[in-house]
Specification:
By secondary structure, the protein is of the alpha+beta class. Helices cover 29% and strands 20% of the residues. The strands form 2 sheets. The chain has a 5-stranded antiparallel sheet. It has a two-stranded antiparallel sheet with strand order 6-7. A hairpin with a 4-residue loop joins strand 6 and strand 7. The longest helix has 19 residues. The protein is elongated, with a radius of gyration of 20 Å.
Length: 252
């Protein structure tokens, strides 16, 4: 469960724009929501949040974006006073791939970052959620977000030149263990992966892309995206100590 990172909670503004990451049933009919704003992580309580007749029942959908106000912030869980919907994550008839993507975004956010630092991905998470409304390449959107999350976590990968000698020519491999691309002259020094040329290009694209426009969507096959996803998940597990499982739903 996420715990708030604020230090003097009574002195902070009670209104904030949030993205809901998860929710937990609390006592008889209440709900504790775990969310992030642009400046902090926050857990708050909504009375009767489990009641389908609650005016704020839509907060139970993860990745919902809302403007919230708290009535009381003196306790461990501030109490929700009012909430205004900005963007709903779930609508009728959403495909399974879309719902799996929401789950994957939540897992990547909560597992790759400690509670006190999760707010640093707020803008990226909001941007990818906006892109999901019009883009249907769920695998690529997940890859782009994971690449952004890896960079924000501080685990940079070299995708512009050989990680050993700095050459930009004759790149023949990519080594996660060594941290990036490897040229032919340095191949003997690395532990390369079995990624194809197309898959290596995809890695460069997702780490270089400034946004979630998916302009390269048609350049790469589904197999390319799946293999890169598997490689990134393995990298996150090996070097960040985080096991991401929900993305596998997108390619099982």
């Amino acid at each position: 469960m996420i715990f708030s990172s604020y230090t003097d909670i009574k002195t902070k503004n009670s209104n904030m724009k949030i993205i809901v990451l998860s929710n937990t049933k609390y006592k008889e009919n209440d709900v504790i929501y775990d969310a992030i704003s642009e400046t902090e992580s926050v857990s708050f309580k909504a009375y009767r949040g489990q009641d389908n007749k609650s005016e704020y029942v839509w907060l139970n959908n993860i990745m919902t974006i809302a403007d919230v106000e708290f009535a009381d912030r003196r306790y461990k869980y501030p109490t929700l006073k009012e909430a205004k919907l900005i963007s709903s994550s779930i609508g009728g008839g959403d495909p399974l791939e879309y719902l799996y993507t929401l789950s994957a975004l939540s897992e990547v956010t909560t597992k790759m970052f400690q509670p006190e630092e999760r707010h640093i991905v707020f803008n990226e998470l909001e941007a990818v959620l906006t892109a999901l409304k019009s883009k249907k390449d769920y695998l690529l959107l997940n890859l782009l977000y994971i690449a952004k999350a890896i960079k924000l976590s501080g685990a940079e990968l070299e995708v512009n030149k050989c990680v050993f000698c700095g050459s930009t020519h004759d790149i023949v491999s990519f080594s996660f263990s060594d941290g990036g691309f490897v040229c032919r002259n340095c191949i003997g020094n690395s532990e390369p992966t079995n990624l194809s040329t197309s898959q290596m290009r995809l890695i460069r694209y997702i780490f270089k892309s400034p946004d979630y426009s998916c302009v390269a969507s048609e350049k790469y096959t589904k197999e390319d995206k799946i293999e890169v996803m598997k490689a990134l998940v393995e990298f996150i597990s090996d070097y960040l100590g985080v096991v991401i499982t929900s993305v596998s739903n997108l390619y099982i």
